[in-house]
From TrEMBL:
<dbReference type="GO" id="GO:0008728">
    <property type="term" value="F:GTP diphosphokinase activity"/>
</dbReference>
<dbReference type="InterPro" id="IPR012675">
    <property type="entry name" value="Beta-grasp_dom_sf"/>
</dbReference>
<feature type="domain" description="TGS">
    <location>
        <begin position="43"/>
        <end position="104"/>
    </location>
</feature>
<comment type="pathway">
    <text>Purine metabolism; ppGpp biosynthesis; ppGpp from GDP: step 1/1.</text>
</comment>
<feature type="domain" description="ACT">
    <location>
        <begin position="283"/>
        <end position="355"/>
    </location>
</feature>
<comment type="similarity">
    <text>Belongs to the RelA/SpoT family.</text>
</comment>
<dbReference type="Pfam" id="PF13291">
    <property type="entry name" value="ACT_4"/>
</dbReference>
<dbReference type="GO" id="GO:0015969">
    <property type="term" value="P:guanosine tetraphosphate metabolic process"/>
</dbReference>
<dbReference type="InterPro" id="IPR002912">
    <property type="entry name" value="ACT_dom"/>
</dbReference>
<dbReference type="GO" id="GO:0042594">
    <property type="term" value="P:response to starvation"/>
</dbReference>
<dbReference type="GO" id="GO:0005886">
    <property type="term" value="C:plasma membrane"/>
</dbReference>
<dbReference type="InterPro" id="IPR033655">
    <property type="entry name" value="TGS_RelA/SpoT"/>
</dbReference>
<protein>
    <submittedName>
        <fullName>Bifunctional (P)ppGpp synthetase/guanosine-3',5'-bis(Diphosphate) 3'-pyrophosphohydrolase</fullName>
    </submittedName>
</protein>
<dbReference type="InterPro" id="IPR045600">
    <property type="entry name" value="RelA/SpoT_AH_RIS"/>
</dbReference>
<dbReference type="GO" id="GO:0008893">
    <property type="term" value="F:guanosine-3',5'-bis(diphosphate) 3'-diphosphatase activity"/>
</dbReference>
<dbReference type="InterPro" id="IPR045865">
    <property type="entry name" value="ACT-like_dom_sf"/>
</dbReference>
<dbReference type="Pfam" id="PF19296">
    <property type="entry name" value="RelA_AH_RIS"/>
</dbReference>
Amino acid sequence: MEKDVQDIQKHLDRWLMQVEDIQKTQSTDAEFLADIKADLFLNEIYVSTPKGDTKILPRNATPIDFAYAIHSQVGHHCLGAYVDDQRVALNSRLYSGATVRIITKDSATPQPAWLHYVVTGKARSAIRYWIKSTNEEDFQIMGQRLLKEALHSLRCDMNDISEAQWKKTLAILSIEDKAHLFYEIARGNQNPKLVSYRLLNQQIDLMADDDANTPLMIKSTEGLAVKLQHCCHPIPGDTLVAMLDHDVGLAVHRVACPNLPRSNDHAFSLAWQEHTGQLFLTPIKVFVNNHFGVLFSITNLLNKMEVNIEDLSITGDSEVKEMYFLLQIEDTSRLQEIIRGLNDLSDVINITRTF
């Protein structure tokens, strides 16, 4: 009985420390209550760092929960994870006794999708706070870049615009200041080309742009103002196009994406500025002869190539199977390497990259 009381007291002490961490993220009252309830008296697992530092987490915790349990900055810059020396997806479930190594990178940032599968209140509140604090800034930066590109196409530098002309344009548009203008551009509420003409006091002529096909350069870790669309899963190396979207800023597609609107008056041509080693989700379909061991052959090859499988499904008939793989890869060069390796397997009939 005394031991049970001591265990409960230890749990309460840990929980109170987590409540203090959650309070620092300035959640709303409703979010605060939901987050602290999530951590109270859940079944626990014991997970360790490679150095032997043990963290106690709720059952079904993910590597992201573990990263935030170490430190909020470890969570914010989490890029990947190894569990017992095996690379795993960030939404995989941890288990007691596991040794977890978190891979971090300065350019890595929290993703809104993480909120769908983290289970600790500390992780949820930290991710939510980061998104709220960086969302507007990311949109402003992207809007400024779009306006700079539009001005450049008119042979003008943004620094050449006088303060008087800025004030006049902002007054016409009923926008408070430059930061809000950049934000509205990224949200798709203001067309950067039209704003450029107003700033330059030029007659609006959208067809007179000699540099209209000059692509906007983006990074693979651009922030919340650039959203890689799940309908076509663009990755570095793809030819890109983007549409301004009110909710996400630049919605980035592969140029052949069937979901792109037919009218592309507000489309932007994009190009990758650099590759950071970040992993991107890429779906492929592998058509195979339905022979014994074919699935093992494919997954074994992917394991040897150190390719993580995020999802897998199989359909087909008794003779030919269609295997859908959602892979985590770096770029199109890596994708071609994987396809060449799979094509060397005797039972593989065809491989296609899907949308």
